[in-house]
C-alpha cells in the first residue's frame, strides 16, 4: 500500500482564518500559475482529479489541503506570476501567503514547482528565500520535462542546481505525463516527513 492510498481532500482556505488545524506535518507545493502544481500532487499521490488541474492560469486562488494520513498533509498553494490577475487579488495572495508562512508550525518543507521550459524565475527565487529564511527545506521539481529534449532538460537541471548551490535546496526533472521523477519526489517527501532531514540553514 502506498503512502498516499488514503489521500483525501481536507479543506480549502481563501482567508487566513480558514487554514486547516496546524497540527502534525505538512508539505506545501508552490509555484507560478500553470507551472503544474496540482498535476504534480495528483501524480505523486496517484490520484487523478484530487487537485484540480486547469488550462486557465491562476484558477486556484485557494490554499487546498489534502490529508494522506492522520496529521499528514500536502498543500496546494495558489499560484503567482500570472500577469492578468488584478492588483486586489495579487495583494490578497501576498497577505495570505505571508500569513501562511509566518504562522504555520506544521510546515516542514516546500516543493517548488517550476516549468522546466521557463527555469527558475525571480519570484521562484523569492519563494525559496522566503522558506529558507524560515528555517525550512525546499526541493525544486522542474515540471513538464516531456516538453524538452534530453539535452535541454539536463541543461535546465544544471542551471537550477547551480542557482541553488549556496543553499540546501535540491532539484530534479519531473514529468507527470511521462511519470518521470515520481519516486525521486516521493522519497524527498518521505524523508522530510520522517524528520530525517537536517533543517536548511538560514539565508539572508
Ligand atoms: N506536457 C505536460 N503538461 C503538464 C504537465 N504537468 C502539468 N501540465 C499541464 O500544465 C497545465 C497546468 O497544470 P496545473 O497542474 O493545473 O498547474 P497549476 O500550477 O496547478 O496551475 P494553477 O492552479 O492555475 O496555478 C495543464 O494543462 C496540465 O495538463 C506535464 O508533466 N507535462
Ligand atoms: Mg492548481
How would you describe the overall organization of this protein?
By secondary structure, this protein is α/β, with parallel strands linked by helices. The chain is 32% helix and 22% strand. It has a 7-stranded mixed β-sheet with strand order 1-3-4-2-5-6-7, sandwiched between helices. The chain is globular and about 45 Å long. The relative contact order is 0.17. The structure holds guanosine-5'-triphosphate (GTP) and magnesium ion. Guanosine-5'-triphosphate (GTP) is lined by residues 31, 33-39, 53-55, 57-60, 79, 113, 143-144, 146-147, 175-177.
Topology of helices and strands:
Layout: E1 8-13, E2 25-31, H1 37-45, E3 63-69, E4 72-76, H2 87-103, E5 107-115, H3 122-133, E6 137-143, H4 150-163, E7 170-173, H5 182-194
Parallel strand pairs: 2-4, 2-5, 5-6, 6-7
Antiparallel strand pairs: 1-3, 3-4
The site of guanosine-5'-triphosphate has 24 residues, from helix 1.
Low-confidence stretches: none
Report the sheet-strand fraction. 15-25%
Q: On the 0-100 scale, what is the average pLDDT?
A: 91
Rg is 16 Å
Strand order of the largest sheet: 1-3-4-2-5-6-7
C-alpha geometry: globular
Which ligands are bound? guanosine-5'-triphosphate, magnesium ion
Annotation keywords:
204 residues; alpha/beta; 7-stranded mixed β-sheet; globular; binds guanosine-5'-triphosphate; binds magnesium ion
Amino acid at each position: 500500500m502506498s503512502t498516499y492510498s488514503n489521500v483525501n481532500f481536507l479543506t480549502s482556505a481563501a482567508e487566513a482564518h480558514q487554514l486547516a488545524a496546524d497540527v502534525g506535518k505538512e508539505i506545501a507545493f508552490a509555484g507560478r500559475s500553470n507551472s503544474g502544481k496540482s498535476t504534480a500532487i495528483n501524480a505523486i499521490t496517484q490520484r487523478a482529479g484530487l487537485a484540480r488541474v486547469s488550462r486557465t492560469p491562476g484558477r486556484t486562488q485557494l490554499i487546498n489541503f489534502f490529508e494522506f494520513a492522520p496529521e499528514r498533509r500536502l498543500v496546494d498553494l495558489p499560484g503567482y506570476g500570472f500577469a492578468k490577475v488584478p492588483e486586489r487579488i495579487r495583494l490578497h495572495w501576498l497577505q495570505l501567503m505571508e500569513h501562511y508562512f509566518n504562522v504555520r508550525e506544521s510546515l516542514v518543507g516546500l516543493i517548488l514547482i517550476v516549468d522546466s521550459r521557463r527555469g527558475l524565475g525571480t519570484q521562484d527565487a523569492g519563494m525559496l528565500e522566503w522558506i529558507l529564511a524560515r528555517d525550512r527545506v525546499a526541493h525544486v521539481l522542474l515540471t513538464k520535462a516531456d516538453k524538452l529534449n534530453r539535452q535541454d532538460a539536463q541543461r535546465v537541471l544544471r542551471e537550477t542546481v547551480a542557482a541553488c548551490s549556496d543553499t540546501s535546496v535540491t532539484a530534479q526533472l519531473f514529468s507527470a505525463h511521462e511519470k518521470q521523477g515520481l519516486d525521486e519526489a516521493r522519497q524527498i517527501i518521505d524523508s522530510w516527513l520522517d524528520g530525517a532531514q537536517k533543517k536548511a540553514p538560514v539565508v539572508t
